Amino acid sequence: MDNRAILFANFKEETILEQTKQLIKSNSEFDLSPSLNVLLELRYLIIEIFDSGLDEDALTYMNDYLSSASYYHQVKLIDNQLVLYHVSEDDEDKQIISKIASDLIKIYKQDMHVKRCENQECQAYFIDTSKNKSKKFCSSKCSNLIKVRRYREKHANE
Ligand SMILES: [Zn+2]
After folding, report:
1. CA dihedral for 133, 136, 138, 140, sign (positive or negative)
2. Which residue from 58, 80, 133, 140 has the fewest beta carbons nearer than 10 Å?
3. CA atoms lying within 13 Å on the CB side of residue 81
4. Separation of 142 CA from ligand 1 center, angstroms?
């Protein structure tokens, strides 16, 4: 599954409500429980963290966001193994803030490399999963576009 903090950071301000609804696959006619302002603030903070790192202040904010959902543990037996799992009584839309925050923490816990697409018209955040961390573009679409553009520029001067 795609990291929800990355997806969320790439949402556009004008459509963030609709895109967040799609993220939780809510087709509800009603507004999301996190308000537009809350979503915009969280997105702003995540972008700050991607650009300048996760410091103590950011952790305090993240703990606030994480606490917006309540979970409890349950246990079951699967093939004679005890399995602990989380249950929440909250609706999906109430949990979304905390899920995005926990996906953000995962990025740093697992030492993933967040980068910004070097296509100036795109600038999407993405996780560089390549071995030598040399990826410059979010997708092959962006990298092909820039390759073609550079080729044209080069040959226009000949
Ligand atoms: Zn891109």
Report:
1. negative
2. 80
3. 5
4. 5
- Distance in Å, CA 158 to ligand 1 centroid: 29
Ligand 1 centroid, distance to 143 Cα (angstroms): 7
pTM (two decimals): 0.83
Question: Looking at residue 68, what DSSP letter applies?
Answer: T
> What is the whole-number distance in angstroms between the Cα of residue 102 and the centre of ligand 1?
24
Predicted confidence (pLDDT) at residue 92 exceeds the cutoff of 90: no
User: Rounded CA gap, 30 and 119, in Å?
Assistant: 36
- CA 121 to ligand 1 centroid distance, Å: 8
Instruction: Return d(Cα 63, Cα 103) in angstroms, integer.
Output: 13
The rounded Å distance from CA 114 to ligand 1 centre is 13
Contact 98, 69 (CB under 8 A): yes
pLDDT digits (tens, 9 = 90+) for 53-69: 999 999 999 999 998 88
Asked if 113 and 138 count as a contact pair (C-beta separation under 8 A), the reply is no
Residue ranges per structural domain of the chain: 1-111, 112-158
* Interval between CA 120 and ligand 1 midpoint (Å): 8
Per the listing, tokens 């520029």 go with 153
